[in-house]
Amino acid sequence: MSIRTALATAALVAATPLWADDYNSPELIEQGRYLSRAGDCVACHTAKGGKPYAGGLPMATPIGTIFATNITPDPKTGIGNYSLEDFDKAVRHGIAKDGYTLYPAMPYPSYARVTDEDLKALYAYFMHGVKPVEQANRESEIPWPLSMRWPLAAWRTAFAPAVEAQTPSGPLKYENAQLARGAYLVQGLGHCGSCHTPRAVTLQEKSLDERDASFLARGQVIDGWVAISLRDHTPDGLGDWSAEDIVQTLRDGRNAHFSSIGAMNEVIQHSGQHLTEPDLMAIAQYLKSLPAIPGSNKVAFQASDTTAKALWAGESPSRGAELYVDNCAACHRTDGQGYKEVFPRLANNPSVLAEDPSSMIRVILNGSRLPSTQQAPSDLVMPDFGWRLDDQEAAQLVSFIRNSWGNKAPAVSAKQVSAVRQAIAEEHGGPAAKH
User: Fold this and answer.
1) How far is CA 298 from the centre of its chain?
2) pLDDT of 49-102, one tens digit each?
3) Rounded CA gap, 349 and 249, in Å?
4) Is 26-132+145-159 assigned to CATH 3.40.50.300?
5) Domain 300-428 - what CATH class?
6) What are the C-alpha distances in Å from 181 to residues 7, 115, 221?
7) How many other CB atoms sit within 10 Å of the CB of residue 430?
8) For residues 196 and 293, what is the distance between their CA atoms, to the nearest angstrom?
């Protein structure tokens, strides 16, 4: 080889992106498909009844509604013209191809954790494994001046972590590979903290990993449903759950004593049921490694058979008890224990005992449906009772459930029920009823 040829070759190598690769590789595309499941990308980027990844899903924020973008490889309205570097900037840095900062509804602070290799696989999948759809992106419904983007750049600079050369072990060290894998999935693609970690007044998650005790220690109300603690709390967390209970819930939407409700159903439907058993167990073991946070708690549980004996004897010590027997006992039983993997127990149930009763109120007023999964196809329905209970009756019923069989949680007011009923009515585009 001549010196001239060698220099030309060296220049070509230097000019070639470090991530140049064969993104048509079937193996790489399939790996990206799996990772997109782990990240639950389809849930946020697909409108109800819309085509996968074509965007348009409305997302309520404290300042207005934004709409998920088209991330199909359509060159006109999607990301078909994105290079890998463009894709990386959007996914891990929160910067669109045009240079503006994305709204943090896109969980790029969590995705900053994604490794280079996994990012390549995701890029291969979205470029070559997703069908392009020409569908224009919708403008946000955030009023000016809140719609200005430059404050988002300041927010990103202040709160988004730097993206460095990422490895699955991440910034923290773990005892074994399983815990490291679980941490990587929970903190990164799974972005569990986006919902289950409390946020500061400036709206950033208070912590992105367990270096701060707030991580996964109860989150926000998402679409009307409370994101419970994923730490070892009892009774409003996972303290009484085994690792297998967590695996079953992520995979099937239910375990022997609990059934998923609300927004978590989409996570199970689009993500959890598609993960491998080793990855599900890694997530479970990691969550079980997170200790409970010391401090006062407004809820408690101490098993008691007083309520069960009273109801079995035909006694109704309150109007809430009467409503429970009339509406709930057939499925959840007078002892509040339900039926394994069919109707969840209400005694010592973390959703029932959440300090914020929004989920409990909503499920009684509006019902819920279990996700239909590969291993648990029966999408059992919790019927709605909002049509037959007024606000006072619903409050009495919820309060009874939250304070029976050993449950100890704050009572619920008719005003709280009215607020949830109004929110449901607005979601359905109709007037609230049964005041």
Assistant:
1) 24
2) 999 999 999 988 778 889 999 999 999 999 999 999 999 999 999 999 999 999
3) 14
4) no
5) mainly alpha
6) 43, 12, 28
7) 9
8) 14
Helices (H) and strands (E) in the chain, counts: 18, 8
Please give the structure tokens belonging to residue 29.
Answer: 């595309």
Render the burial of 199-223: b for 16+ CB within 10 Å, e for the rest: beeeebbebbbbeebbbbbbbbbbe
The answer to whether 109 touches 116, Cβ cutoff 8 Å, is no
Rounded to 5 degrees, what are φ and ψ at 41?
-60, -35
Q: Do domains 26-132+145-159 and 300-428 have the same CATH topology?
A: yes
- What whole-number distance in Å separates Cα of residue 302 and Cα of residue 273? 33
DSSP of 381-429, one letter per residue?
Answer: EE---TTT--HHHHHHHHHHHTTSTTEE-----HHHHHHHHHHHHHHHT
- With residue 222 as reference, give the H or E element that holds it: strand 221-222
112-162 confidence digits (pLDDT tens): 999 999 999 999 999 999 999 999 999 988 888 878 888 899 999 999 998
The total of other beta-carbon atoms located within 10 Å of residue 241's CB is 21
Task: Give the Cα separation of 158 and 149 in Å (integer).
Answer: 15
Nearest alpha carbon to residue 408 among 331, 327, 345, 354: 354
Torsion sign, CA atoms 91, 93, 97, 103 = positive
Distance CA 236, CA 155 (A): 32
CB neighbours of residue 295 within 10 Å:
7
Predicted TM-score (pTM) of this structure: 0.90
pLDDT of res. 166? 60
294 closest CA partner among 239, 227, 352: 239
Sign of the alpha-carbon torsion through 375, 377, 378, 382: positive
Give backbone dihedrals phi and psi of 343, rounded to 5 degrees, phi first.
Answer: -115, 120
Under DSSP, is residue 319 helix (H, G, I), strand (E, B) or coil? helix
Q: List pLDDT tens digits, range 103-124.
A: 989 999 999 999 999 999 999 9
Residue 67 host element (H or E): strand 64-67
The one-letter amino acid at 70? N
- Residues 228, 218 contacting (CB under 8 angstroms): yes
Question: Domain boundaries in the chain?
Answer: 26-132+145-159, 177-288, 300-428
